[in-house]
Inverse folding.
């Protein structure tokens, strides 16, 4: 569970570099048919032990990067762990006085295929909530389910000096019948409280499995606009709960 995964579910922020600037999703319509990605890294194409492709690397260090979606900024440091599941954290280059972005990846063990079951990242956006949301929709398409700040307050929580919007995506690359079943379940059965929504990105995997279903595969995106600066943070989690279920007992 996330509380035991070194506070993995911190508030993450995913801005224009990881969204609108991606050449792999030029419009919201195209985004609907594209795999969910962070810096071009998708859950299926990211494997334990694979290297990472930085921008421009295809012409220099790793020619194989010419065939990948990955477009990472320069990686300045790497942290690798093996327990409770294989984990890699990539710290990316940043401008002076800026907080470096950290991309975190959790994998299934090699004997279970080694694919990633969770990818997160942290950055900051100068845009307000509407602008940041537009960037998300341009990259990911229309959300399967969305809870606005008004929805959150109507469900019992009031937050001062912060506007929050929560978008949930079911992965469009899934088989149509499976996508439709998960989407229908979320739209008809997922009924969180305001507090549940506000802390959704800090929620244990087991609880997410209960709320979203252990067959959920997609993204959780939470946009928070500061009432002081009117800039936004965007918390993004790419998640395959079925793959996580093969490692952790989410339905126990």
């Amino acid at each position: 569970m996330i509380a035991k995964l070194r506070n993995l579910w911190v508030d993450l922020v995913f801005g224009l570099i990881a969204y609108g600037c991606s050449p792999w999703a030029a419009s919201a319509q195209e985004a609907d048919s594209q795999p969910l990605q962070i810096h071009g890294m998708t859950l299926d194409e990211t494997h334990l032990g694979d290297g990472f492709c930085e921008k421009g690397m295809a012409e220099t260090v790793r020619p194989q990067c010419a065939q990948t979606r990955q477009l990472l900024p320069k990686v300045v440091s790497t942290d690798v762990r093996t327990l409770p599941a294989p984990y890699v954290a990539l710290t990316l280059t940043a401008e002076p006085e800026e907080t470096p972005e950290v991309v975190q990846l959790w994998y299934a063990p090699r004997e279970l295929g080694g694919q990633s079951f969770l990818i997160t990242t942290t950055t900051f956006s100068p845009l307000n909530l509407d602008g940041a949301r537009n960037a998300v929709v341009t990259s990911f398409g229309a959300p399967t389910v969305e809870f606005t700040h008004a929805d959150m307050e109507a469900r019992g929580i009031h937050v001062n000096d912060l506007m929050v919007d929560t978008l949930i995506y079911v992965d469009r690359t899934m088989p149509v019948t499976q996508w439709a079943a998960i989407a229908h379940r979320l739209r008809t059965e997922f009924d969180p409280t305001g507090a549940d929504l506000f802390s959704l990105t800090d929620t244990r995997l087991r609880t997410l499995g209960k709320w979203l279903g252990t067959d959920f595969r997609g993204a959780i995106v939470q946009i928070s606009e500061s009432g002081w600066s009117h800039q936004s943070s965007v918390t993004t989690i790419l998640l395959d709960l079925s793959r996580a279920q093969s490692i952790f007992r989410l339905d126990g």
User: Anything to note?
Assistant: The longest strand covers residues 217-226.
